[in-house]
Design brief:
Elements lengths: L10 E5 L7 E8 L2 E7 L2 H6 L5 H25 L4 H19 L11 E9 L4 E11 L2 E10 L9 E7 L10 H12 L3 E5 L49 H12 L5 H17 L4 E11 L1 H12 L5 E5 L5 H7 L21 H7 L4 E8 L4 H16 L9 E10 H6 L1 H10 L3
Parallel strand pairs: 7-8, 7-9, 9-10, 10-11, 11-12
Antiparallel strand pairs: 1-2, 2-3, 4-5, 5-6, 6-8
Length: 425
C-alpha cells in the first residue's frame, strides 16, 4: 500500500441554474486526476463523503437523531391493535418515570410553614404564603389561593397545581398571578411555587439576587431601582435569559449522570404531596397547568404522576423532529432529557403515557415550539386515547391560537385548563 495522501480540497460551491435543481459541487484532485462530484442536498453531500466543516458539525448528529426518530415512527406504525398500544403506553410511562425523570412515589406531605395569610373579599379569595421543603435544606416558597368561605367549612374542592414558566418573578409574575387568581375565582384551590432560580429561589449572588436572572431593574449607577412596580422579565430588565441559571446547575448535574429535569419534577411532586393533604382539597380531583417552562413541567408531571387527573399544557408541545428543523427555542438544561431520541421516545410519548386522563394542549402560531410539530404530535398521541373507548369516554383536546404570540397564549391557558378540568369535575 502506497503512502497516504492528504485530502486536497479545491472548491465547495452551490450553483443555481434557471430551470434546473440547485446542486452542490466539489472539485478535487485525486492521484493527479481532476474530479467533480455533485450532490443535491447537504445530507446527500455527507453521504457521498464531502462537506464543509460547518456542514459536518451541524448535520452529522442531526442525521443520527433523525434516524433514531424514524425508528421510533416505524415502531408506532407497528401498533396494530389495542394490546400493542397499551404495551407501548406502559413502556413510555416507565421510561419517563425511571429513566428520564427519576420520579418518586407519592409521599407524606413535607412540613409546611405558614408565613402569612390574608383575605381579599373584593376578589373572593383567601391567600396563604407558605414554605415547604423539597429536599433537606431546600425550602420552596409557595402560595395557596382558596375561594372565600371554604376553609373550615368541611367542603373539599378540586385543586390545580399551577406551574410557572421561565419568568424571573416566578409565582409573582403578573401574568402567572392572573392565572392563579382566575382559577381560584372559578372555584378551584390553587397552589403555585417558585421554580429553581426564579422568584425567591435565586441561587447565585452574594446579595441574594441571581446575578444571571434577577427580578429587578437597575438604575444608571448599576444599583437596584425602586421606581418599577412591575416585576420585569429578564429581557425587560436588560439581563440574560432566566435559563442561564438553570443551565449553570443543570450542567453540574450532567457530571453526575443526572439532569436538572429531575429537580423540577421533584419540586412538583412535593407540591402535589402538600396539595392533596390540604383538608379542603379533594385528592381525587387534582389537575396541573402551565405555560412555556410551566407547560414543560406540566407535561413531565402528567406523564409520571397518576395523581394528576387533568393537565393543560400551553406553549410547549411539539415534536423533536420539527424542533430540529424549524424550532427557534433556546433550550434550558431541564428541557433536554438525556438519551430520549436514542431510546425511542419523543414529546408525544409524554401524552401517550397519561391516556386516557383528560389532557388539553394549547398551541400558538408565533412560538418557538413549531405549530406543525404540535399538530403532528397530537395525531401520534390520539390513538392512545381512542384505544380506551369511544369519544367521550376519555378526552384529549388541542386548541390553536392563530396569530398569537407565546405571552398571549399563556393568557389563554386559564380557559384551556378550566375546560379540561370540567370534564372530570
Amino acid at each position: 500500500m502506497g503512502p497516504l495522501r492528504p485530502a486536497t480540497w479545491a472548491v465547495v460551491a452551490a450553483f443555481s441554474v434557471p430551470g434546473a435543481d440547485a446542486s452542490i459541487y466539489k472539485h478535487e484532485i485525486v492521484d493527479g486526476q481532476f474530479r467533480e462530484v455533485s450532490c443535491a442536498t447537504l445530507d446527500d453531500c455527507l453521504q457521498k463523503g464531502f462537506s464543509t466543516p460547518g456542514m459536518l458539525l451541524h448535520r452529522t448528529w442531526a442525521m443520527e437523531i433523525e434516524e433514531a426518530l424514524r425508528r421510533r415512527t416505524a415502531r408506532l406504525e407497528e401498533l396494530k391493535n389495542d394490546t400493542a398500544i397499551f404495551a407501548r403506553q406502559t413502556q413510555a410511562r416507565l421510561a419517563f418515570q425511571h429513566r428520564f425523570l427519576k420520579a418518586a412515589m407519592p409521599q407524606k406531605a413535607p412540613e409546611v410553614r405558614l408565613l402569612r395569610r390574608f383575605e381579599d373579599p373584593d376578589r373572593g379569595v383567601a391567600v396563604s404564603l407558605i414554605l415547604f421543603e423539597t429536599w433537606k435544606g431546600q425550602a420552596v416558597p409557595a402560595v395557596i389561593f382558596v375561594p372565600m368561605g371554604v376553609e373550615g367549612s368541611g367542603q373539599r374542592l378540586p385543586a390545580v397545581l399551577h406551574l410557572p414558566g421561565h419568568l424571573a418573578g416566578g409565582l409573582r409574575d403578573p401574568e402567572e398571578q392572573k392565572l392563579s387568581l382566575g382559577l381560584a375565582q372559578r372555584g378551584y384551590v390553587v397552589l403555585s411555587f417558585d421554580p429553581l432560580s426564579q422568584g425567591e429561589r435565586q441561587q447565585y449572588g452574594a446579595d441574594g439576587s441571581d446575578l444571571e436572572c434577577r427580578a429587578q431593574t437597575t438604575d444608571k449607577e448599576g444599583g437596584p431601582s425602586s421606581t418599577s412596580s412591575k416585576t420585569p422579565s429578564c429581557s425587560e430588565a436588560g439581563l440574560p435569559p432566566c435559563s442561564k441559571a438553570h443551565d449553570h446547575f443543570g450542567k453540574q448535574m450532567w457530571l453526575l449522570g443526572r439532569t436538572a429535569a429531575e429537580l423540577f419534577v421533584r419540586d412538583a411532586q412535593r407540591a402535589l404531596d402538600v396539595l392533596e393533604e390540604l383538608p379542603f382539597v379533594d385528592p381525587q380531583r387534582i389537575g396541573a397547568v402551565g405555560c412555556s417552562g410551566g407547560g414543560m413541567l406540566t407535561a413531565y408531571l402528567g406523564a409520571v404522576d397518576p395523581r394528576v387527573q387533568a393537565t393543560a399544557v400551553a406553549c410547549y408541545f411539539s415534536t423533536l423532529g420539527q424542533e430540529l428543523d424549524t424550532g427557534t427555542c433556546n433550550y434550558d438544561a431541564e428541557q433536554i432529557l438525556w438519551g430520549m431520541a436514542k431510546h425511542g421516545y419523543d414529546k408525544p410519548d409524554m401524552l401517550a403515557a397519561r391516556a386516557p386522563r383528560p389532557t388539553a394542549i394549547l398551541l400558538t402560531s408565533h412560538d418557538c415550539f413549531p405549530l406543525e410539530g404540535g399538530r403532528q404530535g397530537f395525531a401520534e398521541a390520539a390513538p392512545f386515547w381512542e384505544a380506551y373507548g369511544p369519544p367521550g369516554a376519555s378526552q384529549l383536546y388541542a386548541s390553536e391560537a392563530a396569530g398569537f404570540h407565546q405571552a398571549e397564549g399563556c393568557c389563554c391557558c386559564c380557559c384551556c385548563c378550566c375546560c379540561c378540568l370540567l370534564f372530570i369535575y
